[in-house]
Design brief:
heterodimer; A: 452 residues; alpha/beta; FAD/NAD(P)-binding domain; Enolase-like, domain 1; 3 domains; 5-stranded parallel beta sheet; globular; B: 514 residues; mainly alpha; Alpha-Beta Plaits; two-stranded antiparallel sheet; 24 helices; 60% helix; binds flavin-adenine dinucleotide; binds iron/sulfur cluster
């Protein structure tokens, strides 16, 4: 399909747009590739924004490729905001009036933070966190403040709490749910994170919602009112109540949109030669039974980019077929990894085996099908697990017994860490009345640090 | 910061300032007896004659003293050189030893008081600061604020620290006569261990070891909960204290040559120098053991252990240079350059030094067997160039002085010939690799930022590729700081270690070769 001279324009230089551009270039030497973004000239890792605020890194460290990389690979970069897309004439209009023609258009415009129309949500000192510009604003908004309130118990909310705490700013964290992120995490895991949040001296308020944000005379935030009638004085409010596809500038065009840009399994929109990938895309039909129509995570964006690049450059387009689900996050000091399917609550069709370390900061949960004891998914907190192992175990439908008795091989913790997998096995044997054992590793092999 | 810690910091700075002021104390007065005592018999007469004008004169500072000393000495040698009377020229450097004898005053009278008031005070201050670090904080990564810190991100404090270190090394290597007071205050310690007076190298070893021990304790605090870091740090502390500091001094006490059993050629570049070989050969069974052990390390130890564990067994668990880098240098690890360009320069430089060291040693050995015939002159020349440019300027001045500018492994990365040798084995024949955990990388960059060797770890991790790099010293910090559990240092089967064309797990539509 590599037609000489075609011009592929990608709006958005996030993980999805950039992965797509890179992979197109790998198999198509001819195409002209242009990536446009108004946020930054170069691709940076959005997931690392928090570390800039915390002083672990500077902006330049978050760029996964050196600046020469783009020219070397003939991937054009343009820093500009696209304001209008003229689908009829295949043209883009920039904020500065320039127009750009395309043959193929890929939209990878990401997300924007949600705002729910709270009173006072536009006061100074009230903001979400998504872009570099948001981060710069947060830097300004949090100078010399006495208290911050973070609203919304999700992944970005807890990151924001951690960021503020790293600067010794007292944080009140309002979470609507009974426990932190319990619409995703089962009870024990959510409680484990509750405890850890408090260990970091965060004033965690569960089952508490924001009612209103109060401003002072110069329109700066001075407090919030909760649904419990309490007023909390603060000089900063972080609104982290989820994100939505960033598609506002496609409204009132021919482009079919719902919550996101509607696409089929080949990332095709309703307009020929126009595609959408990443956070901004919404599949008309979920790509797999356990997958959502919109998935706003890094890995998904990457896989979209890979697959669309393949489709644009090869004669054999493939429908998007994500494999076994995986994800990860870090809650303050506790790392979280998950593979496969672990729902927050389950009925009798599913069984669960849960192990928690005595100190209450490390745990594993396995979900299996009750009828045949096959593993469905696993949650790990403070316990690194091998992706390859679980990808295989889950897709091949291993029995939980087999998974547990191979847990030593699944362990991805650094060397010399406590062999927690032994404690897991012990508890499993006790609970299930089994007598599973790890394969013996001869002394010599252990001495040379070999895992098999 | 707690009040106590601030006090600790102030106490440290006080000790440090006193230490820096001590060289300027006291008076200097040279006597004939001193010259007779300290100078080699064959030079006694000449030296007494040369220095006669200084005898009995009290100098207020070592600068004045050394000005006269150098003047007289230069004049004498200059005349001889003009007359091409090479045999008579005195090549030995007596400045240090005579200045040290001539030093008078409080330091000379109460050395332990000054040792206590400077180094000990600094150590106590540092410990008061370090011990309570992160006391009430849960285990985890403690990198908050590093890029806001003047000390750790090439700010004024960092630049000042670097400048001080560079100055210290320059004086230590080439003008030790200006720091005789500092050496003097260590005489009692040196005498207690080896029975000898302290030299500038004893002072250096003493401070070096203390730095590793004190900053090692800081590592325990900073990486608490990370067993790999704790064990590794404990190991470098042990090897520095026992093998690099105490054991060699005890050998001296036993009338044996100074020897560091864990140092390996070509880092220990003088191992095959004739005076070392002769020293070992004339020291009976133990000397013979030194020679054989040294050679076993080179031909068996390095390849076998590196095959099994990677070069980390040495670079971040045993080596003294590595030990200092991993303890004193830890606050600066993020300053290493990660660019592709730096990697290119690195490969030229480090392999260049390796070639230099090997050639020099070959010439030395050939020369030894030819009984100092033709190659004598060339050998000496090579030794002095290498000693100056690599042994002192590179390994010392730049190696440590540049911590606050270019990270804590400048020497290990760009210069160390042993690292180059270990690295070749690690790259081409080893079971060690850093395994990348499938598709879990979020390209955040923590790993690359905190890799002291300037390896762009993320480049590999985000494409699902194992990290197999000759320069990796296996410090394990990339794995520690990764927020997604993507990296694991491992020894495993050679098969599948190097995956040039990795496939990222998780996408069943296409298998993209990154
Ligand atoms: C703070 C934070 C932490 C996160 N942490 C994680 C994590 O740990 N793990 C994980 O899986 N996911 C995480 N995510 C989510 C993840 O970052 C996103 O899913 C991913 O970045 C989406 O990539 P994308 O390429 O679709 O869009 P984006 O990265 O959002 O890129 C879109 C780009 O397009 C630009 N753009 C949009 N409209 C226009 C226009 N009209 N003109 C010009 N340019 C335009 C935007 O400015 C932006 O630069 C995090 C998100 C945030 C905000
Ligand atoms: S790659 Fe990792 S283990 Fe190797 S030197 Fe760099 S930080 Fe240390
Ligand atoms: S620290 Fe971990 S997640 Fe971040 S770039 Fe490195 S390997 Fe990837």
């Amino acid at each position: 399909m590599s037609k000489a001279g075609r011009k592929i324009v990608i709006i958005g230089n996030g993980i999805s747009g950039i992965t797509c551009a890179r992979n197109i270039r790998k198999s198509d030497d001819q195409a002209e590739i242009l990536v446009i973004s108004g946020e930054t000239e170069h691709f940076f890792s959005r997931t690392a924004l928090m570390y800039i605020y915390m002083g672990h890194m500077k902006y330049e460290h978050t760029k996964p490729y050196e600046d020469w990389f783009w020219e070397e690979n003939r991937i054009g970069l343009l820093k500009a905001w696209i304001e209008v897309v003229d689908f009829g004439n295949k043209k883009l209009l920039c904020h500065n009036g320039n127009s750009i023609a395309y043959d193929i258009l890929v939209m990878a415009t990401g997300s924007a933070p949600n705002k729910f129309g709270w009173a006072g949500q536009d006061l100074q000192g009230v903001q979400g966190l998504y872009s570099i510009q948001d981060l710069e604003m947060m830097e300004e908004n949090t100078q010399n403040i006495q208290r911050a309130v973070v609203v919304g118990g999700g992944l970005i909310g807890i990151e924001m709490a951690e960021m503020l705490a790293s600067r010794n700013i007292p944080v009140t964290f309002l979470v609507r749910e009974k426990n932190f992120w319990d619409n995703v995490l089962p009870l024990e895991e959510a409680e484990l994170i509750n405890r850890h949040i408090k260990e970091h001296h965060i004033d965690l308020r569960l089952e508490t919602e924001l009612n209103e944000i109060i401003g002072d005379k110069v329109n700066r935030v001075k407090g919030v009112k909760t649904n419990k009638g309490e007023t909390i004085e603060c000089q900063f409010v972080g609104l982290t109540v989820g994100v939505s596809p960033n598609i506002s500038f496609f409204r009132d065009t021919k482009l079919a949109i719902n919550r996101g840009i509607l696409i089929d399994e080949y990332f095709r929109t309703n307009i020929p030669s126009v595609y959408a990938i990443g956070d901004c895309a919404e599949f008309k039909e979920a790509p797999a039974p356990d997958r959502k129509n919109i998935e706003q995570v890094w890995y998904t964006g990457r896989m979209h980019g890979e697959t669309l690049a393949h489709n644009l450059t090869s004669g054999k387009p493939q429908p998007y077929k994500p494999g076994i689900w995986f994800n990860s996050a870090k809650f303050f000091d506790i790392e979280y990894q998950t593979y496969g399917w672990v729902p927050p609550v389950w009925d009798s069709k599913l069984g669960s085996f849960y192990w928690e370390d005595k100190r209450g900061k490390i745990c594993l949960r396995f979900i299996y099908e009750n009828s045949n004891k096959k593993i469905m998914g696993v949650n790990a907190f403070g316990f690194r697990l091998r992706h390859e192992f679980f990808d295989k175990a889950i897709s091949e439908g291993w029995l939980l017994d087999k998974v547990i008795s191979n847990l030593d091989r699944a362990n991805f913790n650094p060397e010399f860490y406590k062999p927690y997998h032994k404690a897991v096995l012990e508890q499993y044997n006790k609970e299930k009345g089994t007598n599973l054992q790890f394969a013996k590793v001869p002394f010599l092999k252990r001495l040379i640090g070999s895992r098999t | 910061m707690k009040k106590l810690q601030i006090i600790g910091l102030l106490v440290f700075v006080l000790g440090f300032l006193i230490f820096s002021y001590i060289p300027f104390l006291g008076t200097y007065q040279l006597e004939k007896e001193m010259v007779e005592q300290k100078v080699k018999p064959e030079h006694t007469d000449a030296m007494v004659r040369i220095l006669k004008p200084m005898f009995g004169i009290e100098y207020d500072s070592n600068f004045d003293f050394l000005a006269d000393f150098n003047e007289l000495f230069k004049e004498y040698n200059y005349d001889l050189k003009v007359r091409q009377d090479w045999d008579q020229v005195i090549w030995d450097d007596y400045a240090f030893i005579l200045t040290k004898s001539a030093s008078q005053g409080d330091v000379q009278e109460t050395p332990l008081l000054f040792l206590g008031g400077s180094i000990l005070v600094a150590v106590i201050g540092a410990l008061i600061y370090i011990l309570p670090l992160y006391k009430d904080e849960p285990e985890g990564i403690k990198n908050n604020g590093i890029y806001f810190s003047s000390m750790k991100s090439r700010g004024v404090l960092g630049i000042m620290t670097g400048a001080y270190l560079i100055l210290f090394y320059v004086i230590l290597y080439w003008f030790p006569e200006y720091m005789t007071n500092l050496v003097l205050m260590l005489d009692p310690v040196s005498k207690a261990i080896s029975g000898n007076e302290a030299s500038q190298w004893f002072l250096y070893g003493f401070i070096y070891t203390l730095a590793i021990l004190v900053m090692g304790i800081r590592m325990f605090r900073k990486y608490k909960g990370n067993t790999y870091q704790t064990l590794r740090t404990g190991s470098v502390m042990f090897f520095q204290l026992a093998f690099a500091f105490l054991l060699p001094e005890i050998l001296i006490l036993l009338n044996m040559p100074w020897h560091d059993f864990k140092n390996i050629w070509p880092l220990d570049y003088s191992f095959f120098y004739d005076y070392r070989i002769d020293g070992m050969l004339s020291s009976g069974a133990l000397g013979m053991f030194m020679l054989v052990w040294g050679i076993i390390l080179i031909v068996l130890g390095v390849p076998v252990l590196t095959y099994i564990y990677g070069k980390r067994w040495y670079c971040s668990w045993v080596c003294g240079c590595g030990g200092l880098a991993e303890t004193l240098g830890d606050p600066y690890r993020q300053l290493s350059d990660k660019s592709l360009k730096a990697w290119k320069i690195e490969r030229y430089m480090i392999h260049g030094v390796l070639v230099f060291a090997v050639l020099m040693t070959l010439v030395t050995i050939v020369n030894y067997f030819m009984e100092f015939g033709l190659l004598g002159q060339a050998t000496d020349q090579l030794h002095s160039i290498y000693g100056f440019a690599i042994g002192s300027a590179f390994a010392g001045v730049i190696g440590t002085g540049f911590y606050p500018f270019m990270g804590n492994r400048v020497w290990c990365r760009f210069g160390c010939p042993l690292a180059a040798y270990l690295g070749l084995v690690q790259r081409f024949k080893s079971r060690f690799r850093i395994t990348t955990n499938g598709g879990q990388c979020i390209s955040c960059g923590n790993c690359s930022t905190y890799c002291e060797m300037g390896i762009d770890v993320r480049w590999y991790a985000q494409r699902g590729q194992n990290i197999v790099r000759s320069s990796c010293v296996g410090c394990g910090i990339c794995s520690a700081v990764c927020p997604r559990g993507v990296l694991k240092l491992e020894n495993g089967e050679e098969e599948g270690r190097i995956n040039e064309m990795p496939i990222l797990i998780g996408n069943k539509s296409v298998s993209v070769k990154s």
